[in-house]
Design brief:
Blueprint lengths: L16 E7 L2 H11 L4 H4 L1 H5 L10 H14 L7 E9 L8 E12 L4 E10 L2 E11 L3 H4 L7
Antiparallel strand pairs: 1-3, 2-5, 3-4, 4-5
Length: 151
C-alpha cells in the first residue's frame, strides 16, 4: 500500500515524478469485475481468453488506469487532489502476473486555477501498455490554512 504524501500546488514543479509498481493477480481482476460489473470473459475465463488474440486472460484496461488514480490520490499530488480529466491510450494488454510500473510526471502547472497537467505512463517489462494525461486541481497552502479567529 502506498504511503500518503500530501503536496500543495506550491510544492509542485515541472518534472516532478512519482509512481508505483503492482503485480496483477487473478484476485485483482475478479475483484474489479465484481465491483464494476464488467464480466467480459476475456478477463475471467481462461478457456474463452485462450481463443482471443491475447491467448490468455487480461486485466481490464480501466483497472490499469486505476493504478494512475492511486498515484494521483496518494503521492503526486496526493490527498485533496481533484480529478478534472484523464485521457488514455491503451497500447498493449496487461496479463495476469504482469508487474505494472506506473509513472506520473508533472508536465505543466497552471497557477491561476491551481491545476496541474500530468503525463501518465504504465509499462510492463519496459513496454508501454497505457499512456495518457491527467488534469487535476491541487489544493494550495492558502486553502489548507486554518481559519483565523479575530482577536
Amino acid at each position: 500500500m502506498l504511503e500518503l504524501r500530501t503536496l500543495h500546488f506550491e510544492d509542485l514543479s515541472v518534472g516532478m515524478k512519482d509512481g508505483l509498481s503492482k503485480t496483477i493477480s487473478s484476485q485483482d481482476v475478479v475483484g474489479f469485475a465484481e465491483i464494476t460489473g464488467d464480466r467480459n470473459p476475456i478477463h475471467l475465463s481462461e478457456h474463452f481468453a485462450a481463443r482471443t488474440p491475447f491467448g490468455t486472460r487480461i486485466a481490464h484496461g480501466l483497472y490499469t488506469a486505476g493504478l494512475i488514480s492511486a498515484v494521483l490520490g496518494t503521492r503526486l499530488p496526493g490527498p485533496g487532489a481533484i480529478y478534472i480529466s484523464q485521457n488514455l491510450r491503451f497500447r498493449a494488454p496487461v496479463r495476469i502476473g504482469d508487474t505494472v510500473e506506473v509513472t506520473v510526471e508533472v508536465a505543466e502547472l497552471m497557477p491561476d486555477k491551481h491545476r496541474a497537467r500530468l503525463t501518465c505512463i504504465c509499462s510492463v517489462g519496459g513496454e508501454t501498455v497505457l499512456e495518457g494525461e491527467a488534469l487535476v486541481k491541487v489544493p494550495s497552502r492558502a486553502d489548507a490554512a486554518p481559519p483565523r479567529i479575530p482577536a
